[in-house]
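Box 4.2: Ligand-aware structure prediction
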Amino acid sequence: MAFAKKKLFIKTWGCQMNVYDSQKIADVLIPMGYEQVDTPDDADMLVLNTCHIREKATEKVFSDLGRMRPHKTRREEQGKKTVIAVAGCVAQAEGDVILDRAPYVDLVFGPQVYHQLPQMVAKVTGEDKNRVVNTDFPVESKFDYLPEEHESPGPSAFVAVQEGCDKFCTFCVVPYTRGSEFSRPVQSILDEAKRLVETGSQEIFLLGQNVNGYHGTGPNGKEWTLADVIKSLADIDGLSRIRYTTSHPCDMQDDLINAHGEIDKLMPYLHLPIQSGSNKILKAMNRKHTHEEYREIIAKLRAVRPDISLSSDIIVGFPGETDEDFEDTMSIVRDVVYGSCYSFKYSARPGTPAAIMKNQVLEKDKDSRLARLQSLITDQQSTYNKSFIGQTLPVLFDRKGRDEGQLIGRSPYMQSVHVKGNERLFGQMVNVKIKRATASSLSGEIDIID
Ligand code: 5AD
Ligand code: SF4
């Protein structure tokens, strides 16, 4: 008699690394008899994979947990064991606090230990009903212990190449929640990429908190840079597109810049956060570069790949930011001209140096600066996207739209492109003639297919 599979529901917040982690968490749990489901109803195990980078994340996690409590109570009244787990960066930062505040949570585990899930799940589902908190940074690398993927992630796949951060920007929790910088050995990255391509992925998105600081050991025993890894990946037949994120300006070395001019499979897109245009604020943020150095990198990139689309993260209202500093941020955005840009109000993260700086900016000033910056960015993105109207772009369809017959994919420049098209085009690279553009996406018609 076949046993019914246990249902696993995972909710993911935050960055691409968290999305990748959720896939890996599923890969560990599926061999234990779980199958992934899309809704929490009747799930035997609920995992909240959390993000701590900006404000209110913790409160959102507790309110979500509150909603899950009746679900657990109802099921347990029917004699069905239900495991509630909190994973990710809030789990790492809050640990025991979560068990104290939410007595119905069974398991709390940080981003570095999900390869140990079989043991943890065995403990919490056992007779003694143990509760487990695991926020260790084990000496062994989880990458060495993770099983191979169970399902193809689809046309576009993430591969973590590097994790953690030693940069300690004064506003950021990542060095505390993800731990210190670690680069995966080259061979395991290449093996994972090959497997993904064999199961149908055409695009590989290399992930790392400081991905361009990658310095892993190559098959020849020498240290490889990210550019070396990209060159090797480009030799994989069937792989059409390579991307990487997130990069730090200080690690933007010439071999990587030049790779953008040399490797066709490396897409003309780079997310390179500047955070602020003021040298005074960059210094207080401990970014270790000036806006002039950043501009120089952009100039070099554009020299080797003139059509490269640039993207950035910007924080407004960092402690000590004056109107003048903010104008410097507006200037750099105007000068660089981004294809896309993410902007955030500074939020004090407990335990980070900037949180206790004396000169915090008033909320109303943060609000007005953010509004001005976002209006500039929206104009810029809209002009940028409209410049593609009339062009034909190769689009890799990796999502289905909400409406029947709608497909969504990405252009080489990372824009979302919407078309009406047959479902059989899902997973394919198709030429699309761009007809319309907004600040956030393009739409068009499929060019004649043979
Ligand atoms: N406040 C506001 N934005 C932040 N970010 C990181 N920490 C904070 C914070 N404390 C932003 C940065 C980073 C992006 C992922 O989130 O811009 O690049
Ligand atoms: Fe955070 Fe700075 Fe590290 Fe990026 S480089 S993860 S912003 S500390």
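In the box above, the bound molecule is iron/sulfur cluster. The mean pLDDT is 94.
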